Amino acid sequence: MLNALFDRMDRIIIDSKIYTRDNLSEIENESVRDFLIEWFSDSPTVNLHTSGSTGKPKLIVAEKSRMIASAKMTLDYLGLKPGDTALLCLSVNYIAGKMMVVRAIVGGLNLLIGDLSSNPLQNEERHIDFAAMVPLQVYNSFRDNNGRFSRIGKVIIGGGAIDRNEENLYSTLPNEIYATYGMTETLSHIAMRRINGDKRSPYFTPMDGVEVWVKEESETQCYEKTGTLVINAPSLCAETLYTNDNVEMRSDGTFRILGRKDNVVCSGGIKLQIEEIEAKFANIIHVDFAISSKPDEKLGEKLVLVIEDSKERHVATSSSALLSSYLGFDLTACLEKYEIPKEVFYILHLPRTESGKIARATLKQILSENK
């Protein structure tokens, strides 16, 4: 019966109850109800907003037909079927949450409206076949509710890079866990990589119908190229998308994310990728932190380490030995010479976007104003 119902995509199952245009008012969750009213309207488009992690959030008008195509890609890739349960624990104010709702509509999934907190499984007892989470939600769920987390059939992780140490923790779990690559402009992810089990890989595989290549190429090995990623996905984007993401691409089209072009610091003529340095610090700093930069008369830009702490203070030194002594670990053991920060700031709260990402442009502005 469910298959017949979903021959037309004008209804959705939420917590085992079918909703159509006629009874959307009965949905208790206001955000979900408002989005479904927009989705089931006669308009062929919906409004989306980018996260604003590298600048001001911007409005994107998305065609519903392309969102349906994106949903089908994910449903097919993961082998999800009508009646499977899908946990919604992401805000529908952003593309990730909206696409969970659309996948439920397109695939006939039973959408379970869950907790939008950083620990969504804390009070969750229902059977879950599929969930989408951000890295912090995954970490907290693994730490506090490992049994529940490992029983979710398939988990996709988006909204930010996954800490390497945390990824290793998930590597032996029995369920299927995937990191995703995408953005609002691509209507969620266009590539995935498995982070656990025998198929674990650091390289993303583009989904069917998606073509990728690199711009500003440079050869790193005979079979690898680096540059900014270019995406051609006609069913998702009307035009070819030139991203600011630096990648390393192999000859088979799979790719590894190095970081955003916006997050390259040119210090004394040396180009430094912020995300790669942060990944190294993640092994030794176990509180929230970020790498950023400040203008410098001699170097052009200088690296700055910013750490969340209850006591705000500032340390400036060009000596790696002194800085290592202050921080309590040997920086030269894990960082290259040019990767060692010139200053350390302790601040109460790192600036973040509404979706939880580091607001890097705001952070740079804060540092530039701090003399």
Notes on the protein architecture:
The chain has 371 residues and is an alpha/beta fold. It contains ten helices and 21 strands. Strands 2-1-6-5-7-8-9-10-11 form a nine-stranded mixed β-sheet. A hairpin with an 8-residue loop joins strand 13 and strand 14 (241-250). The longest helix has 15 residues, at 64-78. It starts with a helix and ends with a helix. Mean pLDDT is 88; it is low at 1-7.
| Portion in helices | 10-25%
Biggest beta-sheet profile: 9 strands, mixed
Output the structural class: alpha/beta
Proportion of residues in extended strands? 25-35%
By CATH's scheme, which homologous superfamily of the largest domain applies?
A: ANL, N-terminal domain
The total of beta strands comes to 21
Global Rg: 22 Å
Terminal CA distance reads: 67 Å
Q: What CATH architecture of the largest domain do you see? A: 3-Layer(aba) Sandwich
Unreliable sequence segments: 1-7
Q: Under CATH, the topology of the largest domain is which?
A: Rossmann fold
Count of structural domains: 2
- The first-level CATH class of the largest domain is given as Alpha Beta
Mean of the pLDDT scores? 88
Global geometry: globular
Task: Walk me through the topology.
Elements: H1 2-5, E1 12-14, E2 17-19, H2 30-39, E3 45-49, E4 59-63, H3 64-78, E5 85-88, H4 95-107, E6 110-113, E7 130-133, H5 135-144, H6 146-150, E8 154-157, H7 164-170, E9 176-183, E10 188-194, E11 205-206, E12 211-221, E13 224-232, E14 241-250, E15 255-260, E16 264-267, E17 270-273, H8 274-281, E18 289-296, E19 300-308, E20 313-316, H9 320-327, E21 343-347, H10 360-369
Helix pairs in contact: 3-4
